[in-house]
Design goal:
- By secondary structure, the chain is mainly α.
- 64% of the residues lie in helices and 1% in strands.
- It has 16 helices and two strands.
- It has helices at 37-52, 56-69, 75-86, 90-103, 111-124, 128-141, 146-160, 198-218, 222-235, 240-252, 256-269, 274-286, 290-303, 308-320, 324-341, 344-349; strands spanning 10-11, 20-21.
- Strands 1-2 form a two-stranded antiparallel sheet.
- Helix 12 (274-286) runs antiparallel to helix 13 (290-303).
- It is flat and about 60 Å long.
Length: 353
Amino acid sequence: MKIRSLLLAILFLFALNIPLAYAFDFLEENEQEPPLKYLYDRNIAVGLELLENKKYSDAKFEFEKAKFLFPEFPESYINLAIIHINRYEYNQAQEELSQAKKLAKENYPKKYIIFYNLGLCAYQKENYQEAVDYFSQCLELKPGLKEALNGLSLAQQNILRKPEPQEITESEEIDPQTITKTIYAKDLDAISKDSQTPQSHKTLEAMNLLRKASAHFKNNETEKAIDCLQQSISLNPNNPQAHYRLGVIYAYLNNFDLAAEYFEEAIKQDPSFVKSYINLGAAYGKLKNYPEAIRVLNKALKVDKNNAKIYYNLGMIASGAGKVKEAKKHFKKARALANKDNDTALLGKIPKL
């Protein structure tokens, strides 16, 4: 049987120049195609199309179906990891990629993709030595891969750089009852092809300012954090994370009007940024602008229809508007999803009506 010709697609994140590599299934010469393989291929193809259109929940559903059909194939795990990375869920992405690595045979032609994305996750979690190791393994399998070379260079630069204070570790979402601090997800911003260009220096400086803002916020130095984030935006105005972080700080300061403006800008830069939708809806809830809060949270559901926190916030909005029956319905859905995700913190917040 002839080798099935399949494509390899690369997805760029808004805030990253290290792209995510899609995985496709493959067959060896003389290998018999197993029953239902056509359904698996269809699920992967449909999932990739949805992924490219940033319909992450629908894409996840397709990849989960593919994994159910053939749990021994690594492609569904890799693509599920890509969804998690787009949602800044690096621990979950690493779990999927680790499973893909176990399943990938020695002669699997796209094994470098697994190491590349593992390196990306490690970089985002500031595990720079681990990122260097993964990018190096990727380059052993795929010498000269530009994206891996860029990631390796940046990880090595961060190892040499003086360590910064640790990031804070509280929840990233705000809700109508509580304003919390946020984890500051790292990003690579736009990396120039030539690491010595002025643009590259600007983006690296913008990234350093994000780190400084995180340290200031952790130490309750909100004015300094705001100043760093505004400087970062002036260097790289298209980074949704900088706008999002400013929104979180202003929400923490109970300035919900200004917080809403920054969350809206973050969504403008990245229409798939679920946490910005959640926080924007919460900010409108605090302002008692319930119709706008509901509109925003319903848009969030189009991006991620299985997010328990969206339903929780919808329940809080309905409760604040005196719609008890509607609130009960949303809380019931939030509780079911939170149980499924084992989100004990959220389960403790959901009221029992």
